[in-house]
Amino acid sequence: MTSAPVPSQRGAEVGRRIGVGLMYGLWRPRVLGAWKVPAAGPVILAVNHSHNIDGPMVMGVAPRPTHFLIKKEAFVGPLDPFLTGIGQLKVDRATADRGAISQALGVLADGGVLGIFPEGTRGEGDFAALRAGLAYFAVRSGAPIVPVAVLGSAERPSRLIKALPPLRSRVDVVFGDPFEAGDGSGRRTRAALDAATERIRKQLTSHLENARRLTGR
């Protein structure tokens, strides 16, 4: 597998601080269960994805610096060096991007936090369709998965900027209990990853349902 430099933890911490300022300055995040994120060691945050601000929101409110896998199309113009500088990972979704895979595994091997949108792209944000990438990273690294539900980001488009939620509106971010994706065997066969993906889907869907009951959204 192609070797790629592991993104900077310091850069991700800078990104977290920028995210804190932006998210709390523009909206009213309500963060629940952040204490459930393990304080040390490798962790994967599995985030539902229905709006452009979901990644920056989680990056800003998570208790630890997070390296997100982000589609390469977002790395345009000045955003390319900026996103790279704050420790985010560029991934080509059209192929098995070995460089991005190597970087993501490197983050986890270094005891860092990897952020993934397991649905692969923006959608209903209901975890209905998962790609196998999340299972692969979890089984390969042994890192626990923490489900994260972002609710309210896509409820009403802003009258001022249609691509964003209304300014000062409330966005709920609910962290769930960490869980292991594998069956303990360490196998990475297609059947083992398919089974892990189904276990993950059930856990994430259950967390999302609980988060909606908890927040009333």
Structure description:
This protein has 217 residues and is of the alpha/beta class. The chain is globular, with a radius of gyration of 16 Å. It contains 6 helices and 7 strands. The model has no long low-confidence stretch (mean pLDDT 87). It has one domain.
N- and C-termini, Cα separation:
43 Å
- Report helical residue fraction: 25-40%
Number of helices: 6
Structural class: alpha/beta
Unreliable stretches covering 5 or more consecutive residues: none
Query: How many strand segments?
Result: 7
β-sheet strand percentage: 15-25%
Q: Could you say which overall geometry the principal axes of the C-alpha atoms support?
A: globular
Return the average pLDDT rounded to an integer.
87
Radius of gyration: 16 Å
The secondary-structure element order is HEEHEHEHEHEEH
What is the count of distinct domains? Answer: 1
Strand order across the largest sheet: 1-7-6-2-5-3-4
Largest sheet: 7 strands, mixed
Brief rundown of the structure:
By secondary structure, this protein is α/β, with parallel strands linked by helices.
Which helices and strands occur, and which strands form pairs?
Layout: H1 9-26, E1 28-32, E2 43-47, H2 54-61, E3 66-71, H3 79-85, E4 89-91, H4 98-109, E5 113-116, H5 133-141, E6 145-151, E7 170-175, H6 190-215
Parallel strand pairs: 1-7, 2-5, 2-6, 3-4, 3-5
Antiparallel strand pairs: 6-7
Helix pairs in contact: 1-2, 5-6
